[in-house]
């Protein structure tokens, strides 16, 4: 497995720390989209390369807000997406991690009802309670569209962009809705259940049509996560590792070693299927030593702990597999 971490913002200090922690590659995480100018994208690649971190993953890729809801300008946005895919492939990027939630906030449409829940030791973390969702949770001015029309928008998008992704050697890795509930805040969300991912992958067998396997989101669904790793083997391009405590309608995000998911079993299964893609720690609680400019879920100190834990899981489960041969 290739271990990665998100550095937000990607300052010199943070990127040096990622390299020191043993990160293999860079993830450029920008929910505001990507420039379509090749020189601007090359500058991003060169920025990470200065710290020994080849740029391999773009989250969340080019803007798709008009595409998701089928708004005016969707066709132009699709053509722009295809151009950027070509640039990214030429620069060595291998994965675009994207989602198909309505893009109505700075984090697409990831919905949380608190950022002051408490993990171990009182560490601030995010939480979600469906009972607390109200008009002020995620205000927007979008007109809802039916679920099936959103599927039509996704399939039209994939029909247009998958050939460009194949030509560029880039995988489009779909992330689940977070939380996987629909409708939410008045809008449909279509990547909210296992059947959605079955449908997505059945749409095209292209290796460019892939998954961002978010352990936390599948845990929120209450899914058999180990079984899904096996079910989707060969189609997983990228793994997000985080954990929760609770249920789909009432949960908090935890440190990776205090949640309810058997991460050992998941890593063991990833090794069993020969997964050699990218893995990163996902949202982590904020530690008391985190800097004040750290965004929710992406404080460096919490991620330093998480990446160390994931490295241990990776090494231990790889050795168990080797010992059983």
Automatic annotation (TrEMBL):
Keywords: Iron, Lyase, Manganese. The keyword Iron applies. PANTHER family: MANNONATE DEHYDRATASE. Pfam families: UxuA. Pathway: Carbohydrate metabolism; pentose and glucuronate interconversion. Catalyzes the dehydration of D-mannonate. Belongs to the mannonate dehydratase family. Its EC number is 4.2.1.8. Its cofactor is Mn(2+); Fe(2+). One of its GO terms (molecular function) is mannonate dehydratase activity. Residues 126-145 are annotated as: Disordered. This is mannonate dehydratase. It comes from the Bacteria. It catalyses: D-mannonate = 2-dehydro-3-deoxy-D-gluconate + H2O.
């Amino acid at each position: 497995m290739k271990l990665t971490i998100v550095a937000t913002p990607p300052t010199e200090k943070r990127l040096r720390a990622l390299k020191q922690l043993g990160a293999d590659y860079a993830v450029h995480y920008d929910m505001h989209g990507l420039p379509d100018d090749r020189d601007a994208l090359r500058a991003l690649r060169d920025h990470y390369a200065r710290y020994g971190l080849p740029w391999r993953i773009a989250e969340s890729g080019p803007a798709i807000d008009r595409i998701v809801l089928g708004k005016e300008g969707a066709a132009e946005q699709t053509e722009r997406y295809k151009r950027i895919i070509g640039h990214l492939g030429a620069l060595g990027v291998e994965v675009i991690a994207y989602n198909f939630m309505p893009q109505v906030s700075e984090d697409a449409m990831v919905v949380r009802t608190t950022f002051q829940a408490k993990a171990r030791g009182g560490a601030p973390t995010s939480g979600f309670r469906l009972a607390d969702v109200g008009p002020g949770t995620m205000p927007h001015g979008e007109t809802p569209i039916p679920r099936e029309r959103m599927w039509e928008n996704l399939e039209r998008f994939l029909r247009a962009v998958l050939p460009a992704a194949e030509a560029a050697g880039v995988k489009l890795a779909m992330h689940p809705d977070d939380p996987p509930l629909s409708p939410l805040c008045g809008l449909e969300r279509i990547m909210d259940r296992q059947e959605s991912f079955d449908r997505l992958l059945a749409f095209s067998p292209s290796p460019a049509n892939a998954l961002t396997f978010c352990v936390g989101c599948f845990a929120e669904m209450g899914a058999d996560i180990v079984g899904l790793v096996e079910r989707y083997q060969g189609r997983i391009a990228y793994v997000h590792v985080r954990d929760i405590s609770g249920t789909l309608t009432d949960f908090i995000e935890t440190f990776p070693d205090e949640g309810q998911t058997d991460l050992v079993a998941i890593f063991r299964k990833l090794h069993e299927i020969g997964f050699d893609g990218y893995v990163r720690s996902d949202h982590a609680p904020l530690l008391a030593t985190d800097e004040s400019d750290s965004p929710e879920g992406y404080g460096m100190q919490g991620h330093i702990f998480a990446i160390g834990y994931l490295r241990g899981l990776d090494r231990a489960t790889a050795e168990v597999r080797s010992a059983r041969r």
